């Protein structure tokens, strides 16, 4: 329950504050007029506590439970008090407002007539001195105000969802740019190694074949000078390529995934926890990129499709394989269909003799597992 309260917005606290003020006011009034009560004071106070707490706790789980308990418990309390004190019917105005504010979908078709007409009829039956149509007008206005407040809440939630989506997309684009640059860097490194290295080697071998054909000592000296320059140049190129691909120049896999999770948590406002098992060992560039891409796609899906708020990332270093697991607490999906991003992740894992699996079930979130054999990684 406390976890749900952590994600409350300003309108949740406003409704709770109004409810507390009204309930405290009713309790104080009950003590002041306890001599006029037909039931023991402790029963009335207990009734008031139940009428305050039970509907609000029910709202944390399902709005339908709240609507039923609010009308039965709080409405019943107001009817009893109105039978003793005709003016007590005004206490039901706040309840009508909250019922309208928390109604959704088709529930308006029965909450509106129940609170505005049926309950008003009961109030009129127990306290005929009150005007029926005046009460209908008052409760109707309270219901309209509650409905307007509900529209305000819906608009705020939509804006918040759009903001989160934009934050996720911005973070997604940022990661795409980083990984694309890393892949391009690796491609250029490989091409330079293959083309320039091959060219220098061919030049050196060609000059070596000329050694026996040079008769003068000056020619041999010049040839030796050219050979030395060629060997030095190819060593410089290899050193540069090694520096480009040096592990110390780039973060480890654990650090890369932790940075990715921290950035995503900051932008998407979800809780991302990270844990590792085993001792980290050297991975190939392709394996690191595959795991980073997998985590990136899993985080994005958890928020965009699963609407998750808690994400647990587990990285396991085994003697035979490296495994990444991403578990979220989203709504899950029984008819999960893999998109372009997930298919690309599967293809990356398969190219490294690994595999990627997705498990999802309604109300159980989603679990994405990417496993790559270690013997592939150390090539």
TrEMBL record:
One MF annotation (Gene Ontology) recorded for this entry: ATP binding
Top enzyme category: transferase
Reactions accelerated catalytically: ATP + protein L-histidine = ADP + protein N-phospho-L-histidine
TM region positions: 13-33, 40-59, 71-101, 108-126, 132-154
GO annotations of cellular component type: membrane
InterPro entries in alphabetical order: HATPase_C_sf, HATPase_dom, Sensor_HK_TwoCompSys, Sig_transdc_His_kin_sub3_dim/P
UniProt EC number: 2.7.13.3
Annotated Signal transduction histidine kinase subgroup 3 dimerisation and phosphoacceptor domain residues: 184-245
The Histidine kinase/HSP90-like ATPase domain, residue ranges: 290-375
Key words of the record: ATP-binding, Kinase, Membrane, Nucleotide-binding, Phosphoprotein, Transferase, Transmembrane, Transmembrane helix, Two-component regulatory system
PANTHER family, A to Z: NITRATE/NITRITE SENSOR PROTEIN NARX-RELATED (PTHR24421), NITRATE_NITRITE SENSOR PROTEIN NARQ (PTHR24421:SF10)
Protein name, UniProt field: histidine kinase
């Amino acid at each position: 329950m406390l976890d749900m309260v952590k994600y409350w917005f300003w309108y949740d606290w406003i409704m709770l504050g109004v409810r507390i003020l009204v309930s405290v006011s009713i309790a104080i009034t009950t003590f002041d007029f306890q001599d006029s009560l037909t039931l023991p004071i402790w029963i009335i106070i207990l009734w008031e506590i139940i009428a305050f707490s039970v509907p609000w706790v029910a709202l944390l789980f399902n709005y339908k439970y709240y609507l039923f308990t609010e009308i039965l418990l709080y409405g019943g309390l107001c009817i009893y008090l109105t039978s003793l004190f005709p003016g007590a019917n005004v206490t039901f105005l706040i309840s009508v407002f909250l019922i309208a504010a928390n109604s959704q979908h088709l529930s308006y078709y029965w909450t509106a007539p129940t609170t505005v007409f049926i309950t008003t009829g009961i109030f009129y039956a127990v306290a005929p001195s009150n005007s029926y149509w005046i009460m209908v007008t008052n409760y109707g206005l309270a219901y309209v105000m509650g409905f307007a407040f509900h529209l305000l809440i819906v608009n705020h939630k939509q804006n918040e969802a759009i903001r989160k989506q934009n934050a996720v997309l911005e973070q997604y684009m940022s990661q795409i740019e980083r990984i694309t640059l890393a892949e391009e860097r690796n491609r250029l490194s490989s091409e330079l190694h293959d083309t320039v290295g091959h060219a220098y080697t061919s030049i050196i071998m060609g000059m070596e074949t000329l050694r026996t054909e040079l008769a003068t000592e000056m020619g041999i000296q010049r040839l030796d000078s050219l050979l030395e320059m060629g060997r030095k140049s190819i060593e410089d190129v290899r050193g540069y390529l090694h520096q480009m691909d040096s592990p110390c120049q780039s973060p480890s896999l654990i650090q890369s995934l932790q940075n990715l999770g921290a950035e995503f948590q900051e932008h998407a406002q979800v809780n991302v926890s990270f844990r590792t098992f085993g001792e980290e060992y050297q991975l190939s560039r392709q394996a690191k990129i595959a795991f980073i891409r997998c985590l990136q796609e899993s985080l994005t899906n958890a928020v965009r499709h699963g609407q998750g708020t808690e994400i647990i990332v587990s990285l396991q270093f085994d003697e035979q394989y490296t495994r990444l697991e991403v578990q979220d607490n989203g709504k899950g999906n029984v008819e999960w269909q893999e998109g372009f991003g997930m298919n690309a992740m599967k293809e990356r894992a398969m190219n490294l003799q690994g595999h990627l699996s997705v498990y999802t079930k309604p109300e159980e979130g989603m679990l994405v597992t990417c496993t790559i054999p270690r013997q592939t990684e150390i090539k």
